[in-house]
Amino acid sequence: MTENIDDLLPGMRRMGMGRRRMTQTDMTYGAGVTESSGDVHSFPEKSMPARNAYQLIHDSLKFDGDPTLNCATFLTTWMEPEAEKLIIENLGKNRVDIDEYEATERIHRRCLAHLHDLWNGAKGQEATGTVVVGSSEGIMLGGLAMKWRWRQRREAAGKDASKPNIVFAANAQ
After folding, report:
1. What are the helix (H) ranges across the chain?
2. Which residues contact 43 (CB under 8 A, 6 or more apart)?
3. What distance in Å separates the CA atoms of residue 109 and residue 45, rounded to the nearest whole number?
4. Which residues, 6+ apart, have CB-to-CB distance to 150 below 8 Å?
5. How many angstroms separate the CA atoms of 142 and 123, rounded?
6. What is the pLDDT along the chain (173 residues), one digit of tens a residue?
7. Nearest to 19 by CA among 30, 27, 9, 29
């Protein structure tokens, strides 16, 4: 494969590409940039233009299902444009660095308090929780909290707390 775009121009003109001067970014797939162009588990020896990288990933993601047509899960598949805008505006924040992003942490604690109230948490008790990326993680953390409360109740009643029994449906991920 040639590295020089000028070497490709005569063939491209025969294919009806006209006389327009071609650039590297015009050649996303013609430049040999594909997922199958090498080892995908290590960095390539040469970089590619950001536009080509975007196009490759964008096109690959088209094979995923359309979330607005996903009726198989309980996930949210649509949100208000204002919510999407807030997400995009804050993608660069490191959520773990709570000292640097105090306003984000205050909003996080407020959300926890709302969930504590929604799930009938004890009045006057400070809400405890954490951020999770997916619903399965949230469910598992909730299950652990349920197990610990169960164990505390059993021990307080003088009963054996060594064999918890938590049942999940066959479709639990």
Report:
1. 5-14, 50-61, 81-89, 102-118, 135-156
2. none
3. 45
4. 161, 164
5. 19
6. 445 555 554 544 444 454 555 554 455 666 555 555 556 677 777 888 888 888 888 888 888 877 777 776 666 677 899 999 998 998 888 877 878 888 988 998 898 899 888 888 889 888 887 777 677 777 788 888 889 999 999 999 999 999 988 777 776 65
7. 9
